[in-house]
């Protein structure tokens, strides 16, 4: 592949979010921050939320979480700040329907920023596609 072809090849990143859960708020902003950063580089970015991490997509939850406390969070940014920033940059967010059922999260309670529901098959499809790169949080 030529240098020019590498520059024009579409950049795609799929992020699996499963360990960033409300009980561990220090891990919750980072996946959104990485997604927003990749999107700022003009990459197509999708985030797949599963396990307890799907709770971050429940309306009202991200507003109550802070990745850092005290002096480290002088800017006062809650996790929703990072979520909204990623969404504004075009990051697509998918809630795993199996995780939603396990958490008792009805579709009506999903945040407006959520693109759709998609689970393991969709993410695995991305991992098997040579045009996509993946990260896991």
Layout of helices and strands:
Layout: H1 3-8, E1 12-17, H2 29-40, E2 44-49, H3 79-88, E3 92-95, H4 97-103, E4 116-117, H5 120-128, E5 132-136
Parallel strand pairs: 1-2, 1-5, 2-3, 3-4
Helix pairs in contact: 2-3
- Separate helix tally: 5
The Rg value, from CA coordinates, equals 15 Å
CATH-derived architecture: 3-Layer(aba) Sandwich
What is the CATH superfamily? DsrEFH-like
Distance between the termini: 31 Å
Tell the overall outline: globular
Helix content: 25-40%
Overview of the molecule:
32% of the residues lie in helices and 17% in strands. It has helices at residues 3-8, 29-40, 79-88, 97-103, 120-128, and strands at residues 12-17, 44-49, 92-95, 116-117, 132-136. It has 5 helices and 5 strands, in the order αβαβαβαβαβ. It has 137 residues and is of the alpha/beta class. Helix 2 (29-40) packs parallel to helix 3. The protein has one domain: DsrEFH-like (Hypothetical Protein Ychn, Chain: A, 3-Layer(aba) Sandwich), CATH 3.40.1260.
Kindly summarize this structure in a few lines.
With 137 residues, the protein is of the alpha/beta class. The protein has helices at residues 3-8, 29-40, 79-88, 97-103, 120-128, and strands at 12-17, 44-49, 92-95, 116-117, 132-136. The protein contains 5 helices and 5 strands, in the order αβαβαβαβαβ.
Main attributes of the structure:
137 residues, 5 strands, 32% helix, 5 helices, Hypothetical Protein Ychn, Chain: A, alpha/beta, 5-stranded parallel beta sheet, single chain
